[in-house]
Amino acid sequence: MLVLGIFSLMTAVALPNVHISPILLTRVASIVLLYSAALSFNALDIQAIGSGVSIYSGLFQVTSVSQAMDTFIFLVGAMILIPWAPVTKSFVSHSRTLLTSVPTIAEYPLIILFTTCGASFLVSSADLVSIYLSIELQSFAVYILAALYRESESATSAGLKYFLLGGLSSGLILLGSALIYAFTGLTNLESIYSILSVGTVDSLTSGLGPCAIGFTILAVGFLFKVAAAPFHNWAPDVYDGVPTIVTTWLTIMPKISIFVLLLELQNGLGLTGASLTLMFNDIPFDVWKNLLLVSSLMSLIIGTVVGLAQYRIKRLFAYSTISHVGFLLLALAVNSEESIESFLFYIVQYSITNLNAFLVILAFGYVLHSSVGRSDGNGTDIQFISDMAGQFRANPLLGLALTVCLFSMAGVPPLIGFFGKQMILYSATHSGYYFLSIVAIIVSVISASYYLKIVRVIHFDSGEVDSNTSTLPQESKLTNVHSFAIATLTMVITLFVFKPSIILNSTSLLALTLFQY
Predict the structure, then answer these.
(1) Which residues form the NADH:quinone oxidoreductase/Mrp antiporter transmembrane domain (predicted)?
(2) Greatest extent of the chain over all pairs of C-alpha atoms, in Å
(3) What is the rounded CA–CA span in Å between residue 37 and residue 67?
(4) Residues 43-75: pLDDT tens digits?
């Protein structure tokens, strides 16, 4: 369905005599993603998928985890697309050459479908070739997305930086894959795992040694993609430079697909039970686990400490994301049944909370008049935390929704973010990772200070109105769908405690499928 939607939009955009408005194409792309999510969800009822189904000569492996995450990716993608405000003539004439936070380019939804297609392929990849091609399909579309607003100097600079450093991480992935292929002659992951799980480490030049190095380089490339420390330096600059509506996509979608791929790389692909865990049993020093633990520790510390000094809203959220990546890597490194359950749950709650936070920031950008007069090329984007000063008085519901999201990110009970962190810390302490658990608790408390700084600015600071700026036209106000999306996600974050079984049961069953052998 997704591929059919891509071909349909390509045809619609390419027709010379037919003009279709960008907002209509965006709505069509949203419908395509929703329908794809429904098809993926229905496929979970097929019994054979529970044990894994190999398709296209082993290039892809369809499992319960990949199908469930496909459904989640499509739903999140549709929710990112749906709330965008329509572009009207009066709004365009009002903003003139300033770039707005709304999709004004017809090719925008087409690029979104391409990157979603790459993410869908990536979570099901079971071959080194399909992994590389899938992540490049996703990455190339995201590169274009980051630099789509060509008249914006900051967006162009951020897109170029993202492209160059993304190319470096892709080169690392290709190098790791080449090392593995050179010493095994295989690209299928199941075949590689099966051969190496019965081998021994004789030296670094024969047997399992080069493949361990290859998988380590492969992991470094993926950690680069998800902005895990110490490979995080590109993320704050890119997230801050691109328009907020693109930042929403960058902070959520690539991370879901890459983390699910890392999970399936580590715990096998469903048919033979072979996995990196079994493969590294013969190595005295578990390179994979220790790489994840070190990266987790650095992400937790750097994402929290450096975030304290930020005064630009998107840079602060970038460091917040790095801190959340540290929690995810900790759960992935522990690799017990309860830690994988907490890992899957944390992905879900992280995506929901971040999506809602960025939707609210977009909404503030639409309703605030002070950002329209800027010449930074970002139009209605909010750049500084101080831009939202006193907005609780003007827009109490939006201020309350953002406060709920920030408290959830900080791990304040009884919001959904608290349960995500609690589950990861519980599984880590059960497995004996006391030091990392203590560090995670400390940085979680410290990170609450920069979330509370935003809350203080919104609720207690007094905003200043610039007399040189005019208010936005009525057409730029929030759409009903945008408002409904914010309300729904806020209710999910707040009321999760009253009905937790819906998400918890799903993540528990998915974790069980990975540990059935």
Answers:
(1) 125-447
(2) 75
(3) 9
(4) 877 776 766 787 888 888 888 888 889 999 999
- Buried b or exposed e, range 409-447, using 16+ CB within 10 angstroms: bbbeeebbbbbbbebbbebbeeeebeebbebbeebbebb
**Reported pTM:** 0.89
- Per mean pLDDT, which range of 111-115, 140-144, 176-180, 472-476 is the poorest? 472-476
Burial of residue 480, with CB atoms counted within 10 A of its CB: 0-12 exposed, 13-18 middle, 19 or more buried? exposed
Q: Residue length, the chain?
A: 517
Three-class DSSP labels, 280-333: HHHCCCCHHHHHHHHHHHHHHHHHHHHHHHCCEHHHHHHHHHHHHHHHHHHHHH
Report d(CA 349, CA 328) in Å as an integer.
Answer: 11
DSSP H or E run through 53: strand 53-55
Instruction: List CB contacts of 465: < 8 A, sequence separation 6 or more.
Output: 369, 370
CA distances from 516 to 69, 122, 266, 268, 473 (A): 19, 23, 14, 11, 58
CA distance 288 to 220: 10
- Which position has the higher pLDDT, 407 or 264? 407
Q: Count how many domains the chain has.
A: 1
Q: What's the first-to-final CA gap in the chain, in angstroms?
A: 33
State whether residue 21 is helix, strand or coil.
coil
Residues whose CB falls within 8 Å of the CB of residue 85, separated by 6 or more in sequence, listed in order: 102, 366, 476, 477, 478, 479, 482
Containing structural domain, residue 37: 2-514
> Is 60 strand, coil or helix?
strand
Which of 476, 129, 436 shows the shortest CA–CA distance to 301?
A: 436
| Cis before 109 (ω within 30) | no
Query: 414 preceded by cis ω (within 30°)?
Result: yes
